[in-house]
Design a protein that fits this description.
The chain is of the alpha/beta class and 499 residues long. The chain has two domains: 270 residues, Aldehyde Dehydrogenase, Chain A, domain 1; 187 residues, Aldehyde Dehydrogenase, Chain A, domain 2 (3-Layer(aba) Sandwich), CATH 3.40.309. The protein is built from 16 helices and 23 strands. Strand 9, helix 7 and strand 10 form a beta-alpha-beta unit.
Length: 499
C-alpha cells in the first residue's frame, strides 16, 4: 500500500511519529493509501528549517519571485490531467470538477505574478522641512495554512501563492483525507525554482494544528474548514499573538423572485446545489421562492432535472454530474440530516438515502435529495449539510425572503434571480453576506477580487486572494527620513509643525 509522508526541505520524507491516517477511495470504499500524521517535534523542525530559508527568499527581487510563480503556472497547465486524476481518486470529484479545482487555484497564482506592483509602498516628498516619508511592505517571516479536503488544490494555492510571492516561507498542513495533490504542488513549485525549505508540507491532524498555533516562529495562520474549528483556531491563534484569518461554514440562500426566468433558475439550482456532491462552501443549499405560485413552478422545473442527474465514479466519464462523498462518516452524517428533515416535517420530494450504484455498492454515494416546505427551525435548514441536498423554504414576500438570508448565522454567499433591477440592487446593498450573486448562483469572485464571508462564515479582518492576501501576508513599515544636511541648526526636542 502506498505510504505518503511530508515535503521537507525540497524532498518527500517519511513520517517519524508512527501515526497514520487512512486515505480512502470514496467510490469503492477501499483504503488506497495511508498518510503520516506529524508529531509536534516534526512540525517544529519543519518550521525551524523554513525560518532558516526565508531571509534569502525575502531578499530575492520581487520580480524574480514572480518568475517562479510564472513558471509554476506553466507547470500546472502541463500537469493538469495528472493533478486532476489524483484529486478525483482521493476526493471523488468528477474529472471536469477536479480540473476546475486546479484552475481556480492557478488563477490566483497568475494574480501573484503581479507581486512587484502589489508590494509597492508609498512615498511623500518633503513631508516636512527636509523630511521625506515612505512606506514599504515586508514579509511576516514564516506563515502557515491549514486547508480542507473539499478543494485540495485550489485552497492550498490560494494560501501559499500570495504568501510565497510576498517573500514568506510557508508551512502547509493540508487535509489528511486527500493529501496527494498538495505534495504534487510542492514538487511543481520546486521545479519552478522555489528554493528548498521555503515551502514545507506537513501532513497531520489536530496535533499538527495545535503545534502550528503554539509555534512562536509562525507569524500568521490561514484556515478554511468548519465554523467550530475556525472559531477554535482564530481564538487560539490570536491569543498567541498571530495574525489569523479563518473561513468557516455556510448556508447559502438563493432567492427566486416571481419574475425570474424559471428555467434559468432551475438549471442554476441543480448545478449549484448538487455539483461536487454539495461539498462546497459556496454550494446553494437553500432555495427561497417568493410566493406559492413561484414555488410550485420551481419544484415542477427542478424534479425532472434532478431525476436526470448522473451519479457515479470519476472513471465513468465526463458526463458524470457528481461523485461520492469523501468518507463513510460524511455519508452517514448527510443521511442522518435527511432523516431529521423527514422527522421534523419537511416534505421529502426526492430521497437519495438508498442510492446504490451497481459495482460500487461500498462507495460513499448519496443520491440527489430535494426537500420542500422546510422551516427555519429545522436542522436541515440550520446546519450546513455538505451533501447533495437542496432544501426549499417558501417565502410569502421579498422582505421575508431577504430576512431569511440575513437572519441565518452564516453569511458566506447568496444569490437572487430576478429580472428587476431595483430588486437586485436593493438585495445587493442590504443583505449582510460577503459574496452576492445576481442571476449568478455561485458568486465566487475572480482572483483579483477577494473571497470571504461574513458572520460565522469568516473570522479576521482580511479576506483570501486578491489585494487582501498581499495585505495579510505583509506588514507595513513607515520610514521618516531627514539627511544630515538638514541638521545645521543643532538638535531638536520636538516634532516641528508643518510649514
Amino acid at each position: 500500500m502506498q505510504e505518503l509522508g511530508h515535503w521537507i526541505d525540497g524532498r518527500r520524507v517519511a513520517g517519524r511519529s508512527g501515526r497514520f491516517a487512512e486515505v480512502w477511495n470514496p467510490a469503492t470504499g477501499e483504503v488506497q493509501a495511508r498518510v503520516a500524521l506529524a508529531a509536534k517535534d516534526e512540525l517544529d523542525a519543519a518550521v525551524a528549517s523554513a525560518a532558516a530559508a526565508q531571509p534569502k527568499w525575502a531578499a530575492t527581487n520581487p520580480q524574480r519571485r514572480a518568475r517562479v510563480m510564472m513558471e509554476f503556472v506553466r507547470l500546472l497547465n502541463r500537469d493538469m490531467d495528472k493533478l486532476a486524476e489524483a484529486l478525483s481518486r482521493e476526493h471523488g470529484k468528477t474529472l471536469p470538477d477536479a480540473k476546475g479545482d486546479v484552475q481556480r487555484g492557478l488563477e490566483v497564482i497568475e494574480f501573484c505574478i503581479g507581486a512587484p506592483h502589489l508590494l509597492k509602498g508609498e512615498f511623500t516628498d518633503a513631508a516636512g522641512p527636509g523630511i521625506d516619508m515612505y512606506s514599504m511592505r515586508q514579509p511576516l517571516g514564516v506563515v502557515a495554512g491549514i486547508t480542507p479536503f473539499n478543494f485540495p488544490a485550489m485552497i492550498p494555492m490560494w494560501k501559499m501563492g500570495p504568501a510565497l510571492a510576498c517573500g514568506n516561507a510557508f508551512i502547509l498542513k493540508p487535509s489528511e483525507r486527500d493529501p496527494s495533490v498538495p505534495l504534487m504542488l510542492a514538487e511543481l513549485l520546486q521545479e519552478a525554482g522555489l528554493p528548498d525549505g521555503v515551502l514545507q508540507v506537513v501532513n497531520g491532524d489536530k496535533e499538527a494544528v495545535d503545534a502550528i498555533l503554539d509555534n512562536r516562529t509562525i507569524a500568521a495562520v490561514g484556515f478554511v474548514g468548519s465554523t467550530p474549528i475556525a472559531e477554535y483556531i482564530y481564538a487560539r491563534g490570536c491569543a498567541a499573538g498571530k495574525r489569523v484569518q479563518c473561513f468557516g461554514g455556510a448556508k447559502n440562500h438563493m432567492i427566486i423572485m416571481p419574475d425570474a426566468d424559471m428555467d434559468q433558475a432551475a438549471d442554476a439550482l441543480v448545478g449549484a446545489g448538487y455539483g461536487a456532491a454539495g461539498e462546497r462552501c459556496m454550494a446553494i443549499s437553500v432555495a427561497v421562492p417568493v410566493g406559492e405560485a413561484t414555488a410550485d413552478r420551481l419544484i415542477e422545473k427542478l424534479v425532472p432535472r434532478i431525476e436526470k442527474l448522473k451519479v457515479g465514479p470519476y472513471t465513468a466519464g465526463t458526463d458524470v454530474d457528481y461523485g461520492p462523498l469523501v468518507t463513510a462518516a460524511a455519508r452517514e452524517r448527510v443521511i442522518g440530516l435527511i432523516t431529521s428533515g423527514v422527522e421534523q416535517g419537511a416534505e421529502l420530494v426526492m430521497d437519495g438515502r438508498n442510492f446504490r450504484l451497481q459495482g460500487y455498492e461500498n462507495g460513499f454515494f448519496v443520491g440527489p435529495t430535494l426537500f420542500d416546505r422546510a422551516t427555519p427551525e429545522m436542522e436541515i435548514y440550520r446546519q450546513e449539510i455538505f451533501g447533495p441536498v437542496l432544501t426549499t423554504v417558501r417565502a410569502k414576500t421579498y422582505e421575508e425572503a431577504l430576512r431569511l438570508a440575513m437572519d441565518h448565522e452564516y453569511g458566506n454567499g447568496t444569490a437572487i434571480f430576478t429580472r428587476d433591477g431595483d430588486t437586485a440592487r436593493d438585495f445587493a446593498h442590504r443583505v449582510n453576506i460577503g459574496m452576492v450573486g445576481i442571476n449568478v448562483p455561485i458568486p465566487v469572485p475572480l482572483a483579483y477580487y477577494t473571497f470571504g464571508g461574513w458572520k460565522k462564515s469568516g473570522f479576521g479582518d482580511l479576506n483570501q486572494h486578491g489585494p487582501d492576501a498581499f495585505r495579510f501576508y505583509t506588514r507595513t513599515k513607515t520610514v521618516t527620513a531627514r539627511w544630515p544636511s538638514g541638521l545645521k541648526e543643532g538638535g531638536e526636542f520636538h516634532f516641528r509643525a508643518m510649514e
